[in-house]
């Protein structure tokens, strides 16, 4: 097999270069002379993550598809710490990305199973406040393409980046309490009634009917004990879009010259 470089990284002071090779070795080079200094052995699959420590020039982190995360002392060519990302009942999880915190005391990794792994010094009590399972309710919603080949959300017919901020749910799609919903960017200052998701039954493209978060309850509906209506929500949305278009048309008309001379200003 012809060796190929899969990743490359300089250390903090640029004195060393570390390369990951597809034969699962990490090689440490002198960046000035090009001399090979160390072969770092430990990975059992290809490595696509090399992350240097923010201020300690000796430290380099590596992680790969074999689920291994290593902390290396590249000046000595030795292994300092090792973690294997084993998931109970599912085997190991490939590690896709890692980053150090600015103070160098913590680093975080993401794996192929959607887990966020946080490593560091001290206790983990601050993180115990967060639920174990946190997903956006839109994570696995089907997408379609319109006549212009643009991607749309199948349920709302909107471009995904124009949709409202999603709700946080567990792995079964059950919404988390409102105090967690405020962690979503765009929902930090929402009133409590806007943080209560509305659940409904939606048919998927395979014909299976599943329960999904489809909107948010209003205070009036909650007080009256009424069943939230999907149709009412769609009508309100269409009316809002029509009002916005009408307002834009009136604004452009008011900006046009009254005597017909000149060029109309842009709205």
TrEMBL record:
Gene Ontology biological process terms from the UniProt entry: cytoskeleton organization; regulation of cell shape; regulation of transcription by RNA polymerase II
Repeat region (WD), residues: 1-39, 40-82
Superkingdom to which the source organism belongs: Eukaryota
GO CC term, one of those recorded: nucleus
Residue ranges of the region described as Disordered: 239-267
Annotated keywords: Repeat, WD repeat
Signal peptide location: none
PROSITE patterns: WD_REPEATS_1, WD_REPEATS_2, WD_REPEATS_REGION
Keyword set includes Manganese: no
InterPro entries: Bromo_WD_repeat, WD40/YVTN_repeat-like_dom_sf, WD40_repeat_CS, WD40_repeat_dom_sf, WD40_rpt
Residue stretches of biased makeup (Polar residues): 249-261
PANTHER family (alphabetical): BROMODOMAIN AND WD REPEAT-CONTAINING PROTEIN 1, WD REPEAT DOMAIN 9
Protein name, entry field: BRWD1 protein
Organism for this UniProt entry: Piprites chloris
Lineage: Eukaryota, Metazoa, Chordata, Craniata, Vertebrata
